[in-house]
């Protein structure tokens, strides 16, 4: 059906675009420069990164989880002003990256695939090949951005909420899993680089996980602190308990009893899981701590001793309560051997075991990266609400 | 409640962050460079943009809707390597912008607020002060990212879906409004720069619009074409009719009769609204065309004559069908006087009037910008499903 309106549309699209895209050099449709494709993922998992920067003196690509480019990532300038580097083969997964052009951090101007972080944005490249986190033809859930007013923090906050296949068309209540991010991340991160929605879709489609609502809140309760004055209260716990949970339980069809509620997090989010979950153990039947533990449990000679009572001292009553432990169906830790927090994880696990908690601890390969966090989600989610 | 775990957390957050954020220069927590804040919105609506680029020779800021910076936007370098410019006062709204550093397009490295476009990403700054599109303390809907497999296009596609306050916790069916973006945009654009979710929340809270599901699909059915070979079929219409609508009607609690279905779009999306809506007028009771019309209806001496039958000739039967017109409750056009498509809008309105359509046409101030498109949504949505 070749119609004249199609013809007219194509002509007008070109016309419209010259108007809409004028302000940026790279978006100029009729520019004379080379057409740059970036990133380009080959079938063998090698990734070619490219950026047009004819006037630059040095261009690098950086990405914490991509082997070999973390420290250098120097790119080579071609005769056409396009800088290029090939990395990998890289194992299947999602990877954040950006460019550094003469000292300025630059996301890939040729890609609209991004992952928000705590205070910046990364470009994102997906290397397919791992079925459990690939985009598959299966019934799909969706991930919503939800803005709520935090009465605890006196400002608007955002969370991401995964609803499973069938939720939006159906009825009935679902169990709820709160999934927390790390210090370098934001509430968008589990959805983008973490591929949480795709992992859950695939697990549910295979019958390996129960349909559940997954709530991914924003973990940074204040401006990010590099030291400085300590907050007088645990602002995240207040926001979580007074605002996030009530908002979810009011606005979503979720069960509100302990056995249908789970919480887990990575790194900072793992510590928050313990800070929220242990004092309120009556509310959670499942706790997951990824690449984390009680922060500060391992004394470091180069740091001042923590002030005040330890985590263990603060939560004596809960730690001694046998009845509370009965309702805790899973207390699951996982940390990689190369993780800089592995000692923290081990010491935390030992502390809870000493108090007769039935702790599962997986210490496998890997470091403090999204490569293992996606796998931890894949291992943890099937164990929930069974 | 000053606890030792809070203290330990603050210390460990700093520790963790040095590990997580290493790869990018700007994210170095312990860098010696100045702390850059950007963008900074003053109470009077002036915006200060800043970027650290000590080695750059020329830095500009660009943003199509921000007065005064569209063409030049030159920034001034301070002694500390931070480039700065103050613009405005700017009227309340959301504005896309980016930097151009020695010819390289750069989003703001100090902001995680972004708006995806057709093939790139913009930084986004929100200037509050217009209550109807501000983030207000009202019952909130949510906006979900939904991935579906398009059997028409043989690939995965994404759409954004707004569900109104009460949808996620409740039951019952809602009317559905399909809202299409322009050529320079993607399915994310109405949600970010368009603030559609906030506009709907505010309208619904004030009792000025009915709760409805708003579906924002991806309009570019193929790689963006700047001329070149024309597609043999109207791929977007196929995707819309065969995949998007069925996916929504299967997965959401929406009514599926004509009087509960609306479609509107801006620019390219307005032309698509006519291309989808007119041949299938039995399916839609509300059509909205923002800053658009039948593309090519106005002959331009500098362009070749369109081939084949005109839109009017193609759709003779529908245009003549009085019974179909009876069920069309609103056929609404709006275009700004300064819009380069204003003649297209006028000619399209005249053509439909000639065929006895009851067309509403608003020709107000403004050009081909998101400034008017947000206002058109605010004016159009209250008229739906009444």
Could you explain how this protein is built, in words?
Two copies of one chain form a homodimer. Chain A has helices at 4-20, 196-205, 235-251, 268-277, 311-314, 316-319, 322-326, 342-354, 370-380, and strands spanning 40-41, 47-52, 59-62, 76-77, 82-87, 93-101, 104-106, 114-116, 121-127, 142-150, 155-163, 176-180, 213-217, 261-266, 286-290, 330-336, 359-364. Chain A is an alpha/beta fold and 386 residues long. In chain A, strands 10-11-13-12-14-15-16-17 form an eight-stranded mixed β-sheet, with helices on both faces. The longest helix of chain A has 17 residues, at 4-20. Chain A starts with a helix and ends in a 6-residue tail after the last helix. Chains A and B meet through α1, β6, β7, β10 and β11 of A and α1, β6, β7, β10 and β11 of B.
| Largest interface pair | A-B, 118 and 119 residues
CATH architecture tag of the largest domain in chain A: 3-Layer(aba) Sandwich
The DSSP helix count of chain A reads 9
| Structural domains of chain A: how many | 2
So what's the oligomer here?
Answer: homodimer
What layout of secondary structure does this protein have?
2 copies of one chain form a homodimer.
Chain A lengths: L3 H17 L19 E2 L5 E6 L6 E4 L13 E2 L4 E6 L5 E9 L2 E3 L7 E3 L4 E7 L14 E9 L4 E9 L12 E5 L15 H10 L7 E5 L17 H17 L9 E6 L1 H10 L8 E5 L20 H4 L1 H4 L2 H5 L3 E7 L5 H13 L4 E6 L5 H11 L6
Parallel strand pairs in A: 12-13, 12-14, 14-15, 15-16, 16-17
Antiparallel strand pairs in A: 1-2, 2-5, 3-6, 4-5, 6-7, 6-9, 8-9, 10-11, 11-13
């Amino acid at each position: 059906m070749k119609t004249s309106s199609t013809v007219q549309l194509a002509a007008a699209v070109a016309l419209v675009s010259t108007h809409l895209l004028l302000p940026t050099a790279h978006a100029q449709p009729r520019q004379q420069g080379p057409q740059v494709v970036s990133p380009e993922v080959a079938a063998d998992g090698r990734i070619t990164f490219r950026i047009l920067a004819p006037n630059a003196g040095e261009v690098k690509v950086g990405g914490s989880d991509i082997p070999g480019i973390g420290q250098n990532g120097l790119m080579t300038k071609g005769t056409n002003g396009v800088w290029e580097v090939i990395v990998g083969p890289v194992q299947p997964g999602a990877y954040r990256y950006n460019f550094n052009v003469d000292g300025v951090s630059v996301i890939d101007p040729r890609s609209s695939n991004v992952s928000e972080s705590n205070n910046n944005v990364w470009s994102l490249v997906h290397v397919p090949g791992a079925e459990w986190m690939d985009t598959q033809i299966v019934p799909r859930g969706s991930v919503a951005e939800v803005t709520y007013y935090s009465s605890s923090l006196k400002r608007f906050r955002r969370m991401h909420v995964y609803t499973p296949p069938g939720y939006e068309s159906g009825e009935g209540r679902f169990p709820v899993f709160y999934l927390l991010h790390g210090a370098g991340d934001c509430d968008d991160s589990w959805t983008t680089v973490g591929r949480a929605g795709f992992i859950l879709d695939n697990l549910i489609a295979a019958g390996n996980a129960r349909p559940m609502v997954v709530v991914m809140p924003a973990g940074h309760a204040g401006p990010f602190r590099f030291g400085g004055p300590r907050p007088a209260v645990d602002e995240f716990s207040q926001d979580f308990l007074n605002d996030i949970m009530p908002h979810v339980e009011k606005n979503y069809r979720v069960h509100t009893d302990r056995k249908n509620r789970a919480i887990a997090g990575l790194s900072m989010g793992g510590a928050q899981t313990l800070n929220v979950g242990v004092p309120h153990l009556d509310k959670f039947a499942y706790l997951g701590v990824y690449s984390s533990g009680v922060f500060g449990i391992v004394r470091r000679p180069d740091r001042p001793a923590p002030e005040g009572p330890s985590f263990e001292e603060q939560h004596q009553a809960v730690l001694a309560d046998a009845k509370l432990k009965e309702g805790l169906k899973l207390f699951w830790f996982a940390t990689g051997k190369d993780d800089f927090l592995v000692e923290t994880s081990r010491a935390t696990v030992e502390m809870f075991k000493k108090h007769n908690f039935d702790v599962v601890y997986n210490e496998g390969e890997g470091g403090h990266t999204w490569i293992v966090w996606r796998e931890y989600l894949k291992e943890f989610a099937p164990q929930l609400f069974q």
